[in-house]
Amino acid sequence: MRDTIDLRFTKRRRPGEEGIKSLLLLSALLSIITTAGIIGVLGRETWDFFREVPVFSFLFGLKWTPLLEPRSYGVLPLLGGTTMIVVGSALIALPVGLGSAIFLSEYASERTRSILKPILEILAGVPTVVYGYFALTTVTPLLRSILPQTKIFNAASASVVVGIMILPMVASLCDDALRAVPGSLRQAGHALGATRLEVSTQVVVPGALSGILASFVLAASRAFGETMAVTLAAGATPNLTANPLESIQTMTAYIVQVSLGDTPAGGVEYRTIFAVGSLLFLITLGMNILANRILRRYQEVYE
Questions:
Q1: What is the pTM of this model?
Q2: Cis status of the peptide bond prior to 168, with omega within 30 of 0
Q3: Structural domains in the chain (count)
Q4: Do 32 and 142 reside in the same domain of the chain?
Q5: Domain check: are 45 and 68 in the same one?
Q6: Do residues 242 and 220 make contact, with C-beta atoms less than 8 angstroms apart?
Q7: End-to-end Cα distance, the chain
Q8: pLDDT digits (tens, 9 = 90+) for 278-298
Q9: Whole-number Å distance between alpha carbons of 86 and 219
Q10: What is the DSSP string of 210-263?
Q11: Structural domain harbouring 36
């Protein structure tokens, strides 16, 4: 009798469950179709671009002037500017984020943690254009007061604000990685006479190293794709330089520049944004794949 009731109840729920299952399948297929569409558009336009511009000239050229005469399509100035922003922001966000995570995980009480972590994560909700104006109105004047040779648009102020932007990601992911380390490792360290600092830096951090590295890679990929803050703060000068006080242009900033509508659609100048976008897509895809592999290794260790 009981089995009959359960069977009837299961049959009665089945139409609703099948509808939910179909909806979830549709959602998954929609995301796959969207991704395939993006890759298809990028691939088609990039192929048309490379039919007119040699791949070697694009990847290893030292001058980027696709909109001016004489035209040159070397992407290294854009790639160098983007790399400068990523490295500069990483120098700020990674140590500060890891230090914040160690404090939240190993030193802060539950009450302190419940207050500080949400405040820290508020930074992730600030619009990127606000960070850009913050760089122009606050960070750059401060840099110019210390280093008068700093240009109004410069890579240093952009690196500072991007570092602040990715700080919550680093701190949150590192905190999760540190808290996933088994408490028995901490207890063993204390039993051997180690101080809390020694346990944190020599036991917990090495134990969560793969998770920490994955957070670093994900934060760097986020910095690679940042657009508005670097567009406003770093300028629009495709300058191949190692001086962070000069104006530069990143790959995303160039895409914004061409997308404003001044460049006629269909020409090789217009297709440069697809070539640059494809390169940026491959870089961020590679970094995300690397981060996922590190995370899988991390999950296998502390499963």
A1: 0.83
A2: no
A3: 2
A4: no
A5: no
A6: no
A7: 42
A8: 999 998 888 888 877 877 776
A9: 9
A10: HHHHHHHHHHHHHHHT--HHHHHHH-S-----S-TTS----HHHHHHHHHTTTS
A11: 2-51
